[in-house]
Amino acid sequence: MAMDLVVIGLGHVGLPLSRAAVSAGLATAGYDVSGRVVSGLAAGRSHVGGVLDAEVAVMLDAGFRATTDPAVLDGAQTVVICVPTGLTPEGLPDLSAVEGAARVVAARLRPGMLVVLESTSYPGTTEDVLRPLLEHGSGLRAGEDFHLAYSPQRIDPGNETWSIGNTPKIVSGCSALCAKYAVAFYSRFVDHLVLARGTREAEMAKLLENTYRYVNMALVDEMALFCHETGIDVWDVLHCAATKPFGFAPFRPGPGVGGHCIPVDPRYLTARAASQGFAFRTLAAAHEVVGRMPNHVVDRALALLTEVRGRPEGARVLLLGITYKADVADVRETPAHPVAAGLLAAGAEVSYHDPYIAEFTVGGRSVPRAENLQEAMAQADVAILLQEHACYAREALGQARCALLDTRGQAVGSQVTLL
Ligand SMILES: NC(=O)c1ccc[n+]([C@@H]2O[C@H](COP(=O)([O-])OP(=O)(O)OC[C@H]3O[C@@H](n4cnc5c(N)ncnc54)[C@H](O)[C@@H]3O)[C@@H](O)[C@H]2O)c1
């Protein structure tokens, strides 16, 4: 059966998108190169936080299927590409997954098909990378034979207020007609669409959104570093400043910036700017500051361990919350990793508590997991609150018998040292 929609890449973006499309009544299938992802979904198991197994079951009942077979693309009306856009080992944009997906689509492209890229990338990706691969591989022309569009994804894992349906979505096309087809497609399950002038504007808008967060995180991180040097309580500063009802968007410092979007996307902007001879100075400064934070946490923890135990060697450190985001089961690029590595290198005995993560490996060493929070805190010399999961209630943390280094400004009590 020909599909209304085939989603390419069934990860944190592709699976929720498939769920939204299935709910709207679209005959939807997913194509992924990972046999593990596909067999898990076929067995009703979700690998994406925020999508429940029960929801996968509902999708399967409604006809959704996941496959590693590109034949599923045959006859599809719309194809949406949601593959990863990470970095090469040199820290440059890695578009290999987009290119791979483009070749698979090109081989099955048919006149009238709508192809949309949702992956985050630098301006020009749709026109200069995706379009030539699709056209050369199919012999068809975008804007004439098939429709090509870019629409960045704004999904916010763990956000219970804003979903795919009620978050305004930017849509753009390689021609006015391409954009019109993309608008018609998304309007079936997104309430409010924002038409960008062209694909480059839409691509850049996504980079601006995430870079805005990154730069502001760097600003408050540096504010925390300076306040520490000068004996000023940064959390009180932030509390006071955030009472301004206009012209101030609150951001909070932390042990570093994680995830596959916020620390990665600004690098796409930096690289694109550099390739065009433009030095994006704000970003260079932000990278430098954000990169300092895990070391700052390690230094603060080692000082605390020395105070409590005389020396860090053999001291017991408990990491509380190792995911990159609160109440989300995702450790990609988590700052807990460099923090744990720094503490282990200093000879500390590190364990962690996190209800969302069953295993944590650092430098090939498996970090022991504590099951019982209160017991683990009673046994530790120092606990470090790295992530503000809901289970870390302020009062419980404040009553801890061990010293607590709070990198999130959550806890109160005589044992608490703030970042
Ligand atoms: N995760 C988020 O919150 C978020 C939010 C907005 C935008 N984005 C962007 O969306 C894109 C996808 O991110 P994600 O978090 O869903 O990634 P992910 O790693 O969770 O999932 C990507 C999926 O694509 C599959 N894949 C990889 N190469 C493929 C190929 N050539 N063909 C088919 N499938 C392939 C992988 O097996 C994986 O299942 C990225 O560009 C990301 O920056 C992510």
How would you describe this protein?
The structure is a single chain. This protein is α/β, with parallel strands linked by helices and 419 residues long. The chain folds into 2 domains: 5-205, 3-Layer(aba) Sandwich (Rossmann fold); 234-418, Rossmann fold. It is built from 13 helices and 17 strands. The protein has helices spanning 14-23, 35-42, 53-61, 96-106, 125-138, 176-186, 199-230, 234-241, 265-275, 281-309, 336-345, 373-379, 394-398; strands at residues 5-8, 28-31, 65-67, 78-81, 86-87, 93-94, 114-117, 147-150, 169-173, 193-195, 316-320, 349-353, 361-362, 365-366, 382-385, 403-406, 416-418. It has an 8-stranded mixed beta sheet with strand order 3-2-1-4-7-8-9-10, sandwiched between helices. A 5-stranded parallel beta sheet has the order 12-11-15-16-17, with helices on both faces. Strand 7 (114-117), helix 5 and strand 8 (147-150) form a beta-alpha-beta unit. It is globular. The termini are far apart. The mean pLDDT is 95. Bound molecules: nicotinamide-adenine-dinucleotide. Residues 8-14, 31-34, 37, 82-85, 97, 100-101, 119-120, 153, 155, 157, 260-261 line the site of nicotinamide-adenine-dinucleotide. This is Nucleotide sugar dehydrogenase. Belongs to the UDP-glucose/GDP-mannose dehydrogenase family. Residues 318-413 form the UDP-glucose/GDP-mannose dehydrogenase C-terminal domain. It comes from Streptomyces cahuitamycinicus.
